[in-house]
# Entry
Amino acid sequence: MKVLVVTGKLAESLVREVVDCDVLVLDIDIAAFITPSHLRNYDLSDYDLVLVPGLTAGNDWKKLEVEKGVKIRLGPIHAYDLKYVLERVEEIELSHEIPACRLIESIKAEEVKRAVDEIDDFAFEVNGVKIGGSTRMKVVAEVVDATKLSGEELTRRIEHYLESGADIIDLGIPLEFEVEEVRRAVKVAKDLCDVVSIDTFSIRAIKAGIEAGADMIMSLSTENLKALEFIKNEVVVVVDRNVERLKKLVELARTRTERVVADPILDFPGVVDSIFRYKKYRELDSKTPLLFGAGNVTELIDADSIGVNALLAQIAEEVGASLIFTTEASDKTAGAVKEMKIATYMTKGAKLRKTPPKDLGFSLLVLKEKRKLPEGEFPKDFTKAEESRKFVRDPLGDFRIWISNGKIVCSHEKLTVVGEKAKEIVDTVLKENLVSRLDHAAYLGRELKKAEIALQLGKNYVQDEELIFGIYSNSLKYRK
# Structure
């Protein structure tokens, strides 16, 4: 395939450095500003494909493609990724609207997801959810103290978990509860999702949950074996740290139902011993689905849950788990359900492809980049930045900025603007003529962008305070 790469003058040297094909350098400095009109007078008939910069999305490249009779498609956003794209250019159909780098990742992710979802080897099925065998681990998301929540709050949390990718909703029942509250919580959950579990050692709660329609019971042990008499065809999760005793409990539970899950219990501290328990149980019983309680770890460690979940999911996959349990009981584990759902596709996709869980189109990278782009050239002549301590109040008034209900609130005495992006709020403020000083406008842009980043990452935002990034904050940054 003969390819022509189109770029601007400033990116020419980098483009020629990374590609081994024809390059057309247009008379324009910034490649992102290239439009179809810049190419209209060029003869492109010698080429099978013309790659224009990814940041030119939004232009009508399809129309120009028809005029020229040559494929004109978006390349990557950054010239550095051209080599990566050209290696795959004959494998995929590039887009007029989506930059090639993002398109390739999305295609890879879709291929992995399709392959994982097509696995049909399972132990049993619950309302369409396949459990066990070689299927993807299913995410069990616990609503802690579910019976203490109002119907509205319980609904909100369940809907959040489902939107995040939970396969099974687990209702945690506190030690003190009313039977009617158990029934109410199960009914609320059953109206929203396919598979509902209740998590309790109480025989009364188990009986009430089953009567209300619960599909799965956590946790059956030597202490509440009498609850087996209420089991019809519900899934039963049997728990014990003694693997020989656990196997006997599993066999006992099978006298009531074939849908049994074993949980050797993931302790923290004590992860290593727990993992050996899982491996030992799997050696004794190769068929019974296992539950892996990852939430026991993420809630008890002051580390970002995203990396912890990625590693725990890989460990769970390697010990043969079929269900992986998590929760968002604390602020620091917000987003854990979504993280775990992605991790289950990464680990199962890696197993199918016999590779590590990388380069699958899925990723749990948030603060770090998979590929670091080259930095721009450092200038020889420059003016060192100097912060001004001078403050002059804008005669048009001040702004208060905060986050509420997943939105940025920007309040002025004349108008309150609410949005999710800094730019849309700034554009509205400028349209309404609420700022008159350049320094005030610059300040507003800085603060709103901080608020936007905080909103995206689920971090605290306080006006005029720096965002806190732990060891990567300026005051704690590691310096070589």
Summary: The chain has a mean pLDDT of 95. Residues 165 and 437 are 46 Å apart (CA to CA). Residues 438-457 form the longest helix (20 residues). The longest strand covers residues 138-143.
